[in-house]
Design goal:
Blueprint (H helix, E strand, L loop, with lengths): L1 E6 L8 H15 L3 E6 L6 E2 L2 E5 L6 H14 L5 E4 L2 H8 L7 E5 L12 E2 L2 E2 L5 H7 L15 H17 L2 E4 L2 H9 L5 E3 L5
Parallel strand pairs: 1-2, 1-5, 2-4, 5-6, 6-9, 9-10
Antiparallel strand pairs: 3-4, 7-8
Length: 197
């Protein structure tokens, strides 16, 4: 099977999502699959014998990464696409075959604009307008109430991400808590596959 892993982050400069994507790529290759990694992260094109296509995403990452990945994925003849994070999910699910796309969700990007669900040092009660006014404190240079103008953009961003996930063939949560959050947000076809240790 030809599998394409789409990700914003990938070694050598990466955090947990990048390194777990690498482990997945190596495991899939060992199982006999043909694996290609598409990433906007800089580095070598051939890493540990894996085909890694490094793509350039210029401008605002939120807009450029999904566009660049969607364009690159359109040229791949993949049996399955596995998106590893929010921007790669938007790129992968913008294509014509979303039923072939699986998305791994490792944090709260589908329900929290900042992906943390932390506001003022505590767990955020939700992303309604009221809580969002508190969340903006310290995130934007403009003081309240001027910063509140960002709220419609934030709400639209979250709605776009959830709509994309609803089209995925599978959504893979790294924990039961993330899975429940996804289901509560109306995301179907959610499975739990814990992170590797």
């Amino acid at each position: 099977m030809k599998v394409v892993l789409a990700t914003e982050v990938y070694p050598p400069r990466a955090g947990g999502a990048g390194w777990s994507t690498r482990a997945l790529a190596l495991g899939l290759r060992e199982a006999g699959h043909e694996v290609t990694v598409l990433t906007t992260s800089p580095g070598a094109e051939d890493l540990e014998g894996l085909r890694v296509r490094r793509l350039s995403a210029r401008g605002r990452r939120r807009l450029s990464v999904p566009r660049v990945l969607a364009r690159a994925l359109a040229g791949e003849k993949a049996d399955a696409i596995h998106a590893q994070h929010s921007l790669s999910a938007l790129g992968a699910l913008g294509g014509h075959r979303p039923e072939r796309v699986a998305v791994t969700v490792r944090d709260h990007w589908q329900v929290c604009f900042w992906s943390t669900r932390i506001s003022r040092g505590a767990l955020c009660p939700g992303c309604g307008v009221g809580p969002m006014t508190r969340c903006l404190d310290g995130h934007l240079p403009a003081p309240a109430p001027l910063s509140w103008g960002a709220i419609p953009y934030m709400q639209g961003d979250l709605a776009l991400k959830r709509a994309a996930l609803r089209r995925a063939g599978a959504t893979l949560a790294v924990s039961g808590a993330i899975a429940e959050e996804l289901r509560a947000a109306g995301i179907p076809r959610v499975q739990v596959i814990p992170n590797i240790v």
